[in-house]
Amino acid sequence: MKNHYRIVERYKAEKILRFATFLIDYVIIILINYLIGTIIGLLYYATQSEFMYKIILAINNRFFAYLISIVVFLTYYNVLEYFTKGRTIGKFVTGTIAVKEDGSTPTSNDFLKRNFSRIVPFDALSFFGTNGWHDSWSDTRVVKRNAYLEALERENSIEDIGQIAVE
C-alpha cells in the first residue's frame, strides 16, 4: 500500500463540515437514547415487572444514565465506522469518511482508539484546532470522500501508465 499522506492532508474535511457531522451524529445518538428509554418505559407499562421498575430507577440515577449514554455513543460510532469502513450517518450526509493518515482504511483497533478518545471531555471541540484529539491519537483523518477517492484514482492511473510502459 502506497502512502497517500499528501492526498489525505489535501482533502481533509473543513472544520464547519466536521462540526455539521458531529451535530448530525449527536442528534441521532440522542434519538437512540430516547428510543431506549421509551422501550424500557413501554416494557414496564406492559409487564409491570419489578425488574423493569428497578431499571427505570437505575436510569434515573445520573451516573448510571451517563454510563448508558457512553455505551450507546461508543456502540453507535464503533459499529457504524467498522461496518461502513469509516462512516457514520453524519459522515454519509456530509460526504466525508475517516481514513488512516497514510490513506489506508482504519482497522477495528484504530476505530476503537478513535472512538474511546471521544469520551475525553471537550474532544468534540478539539477539531477546531489542526486535528481533533480523536484523530491525532488514532492517526486518522476525516476527508471529503468523493474528492479524496477521485484524487486516489488519478494517482493510481498515473502509476498504471508507468507500469504499462515498463512491461
Describe the structure.
This protein is mostly helical and 167 residues long. The protein has one domain (5-166). Helices cover 71% and strands 6% of the residues. A two-stranded antiparallel sheet has the order 1-2. Helix 4 (62-83) runs antiparallel to helix 6. The radius of gyration is 20 Å and the shape is elongated. It starts with a helix and ends with a helix. The mean pLDDT is 86.
Briefly say what this structure is.
With 167 residues, the chain is mostly helical.
Distinctive features:
167 residues; mainly alpha; two-stranded antiparallel ribbon; 9 helices; 2 strands; elongated
Beta content: 5-15%
**Distance between the first and last residues' Cα:** 21 Å
Major sheet summary line = 2 strands, antiparallel
Q: Give the strand line-up of the largest sheet.
A: 1-2
Count of spatially separate domains: 1
What is the total tally of β strands? Answer: 2
Oligomer: single chain
- Derived structural class: mainly alpha
Radius of gyration: 20 Å
Averaged pLDDT, please? Answer: 86
Helical fraction equals over 70%
Order of SSEs: HHHHHEHHHEH
Shape: elongated
* Unreliable segments of 5+ consecutive residues: none
Could you outline the blueprint of secondary structure elements for this entry?
Blueprint: H1 5-10, H2 15-47, H3 50-59, H4 62-83, H5 89-94, E1 96-100, H6 108-116, H7 123-126, H8 133-138, E2 140-144, H9 145-166
Antiparallel strand pairs: 1-2
